[in-house]
Design goal:
Elements lengths: L39 H20 L6 H12 L5 H8 L3 H13 L3 E5 L7 E5 L1 H21 L5 H17 L8
Antiparallel strand pairs: 1-2
Length: 178
Amino acid sequence: MARKRQATVVPIKRRGSANSDPPIPANAGVTSDHDLERAVPYLLARAGTRMGQSFSKELKRFELSLTEWRVCVALHHKAHQRLTELASHTSTEPSTLSRVVDGLLQRGLLLRDRSGDDARALALCLTESGIALTERIIPLAQLYERVSLAGLTTAQADALRDMLRKVYDNMALLDRDD
């Protein structure tokens, strides 16, 4: 039988906190044993990776990558986004997103136009071709979501969405500006 050892516990400081702010206490009962099959970050990544890989195979016939799809569907949902806003909505690093956007612009799926909020700023939107392609793929994306949520009630699926947003927001606590 594996022996559980007590791990050294270090309090976690809040992001951007001053030295006078009290640290966030870590759990006193933490042990050095860590079951990967119960670890939320692993389970989230595992599910997301499987879903992304599976859907990516479908996107090949449309000559789109998963990141390109996310850009298109984000702009379909809300047009005229700046690159920084789009990076947030797609969870894509700005340097990667810039290359993806350039490719979609060259393929005639996106346009740069003036932002409604600030006439000096450039924003992105889908072209008619981009809209048509996105609308062809949306039913497929919805099918993949329905399959992934099979066995869950509507209330459970809504609760899962809420919990995932909460987990995402909670991680801001540990984000560090590098």
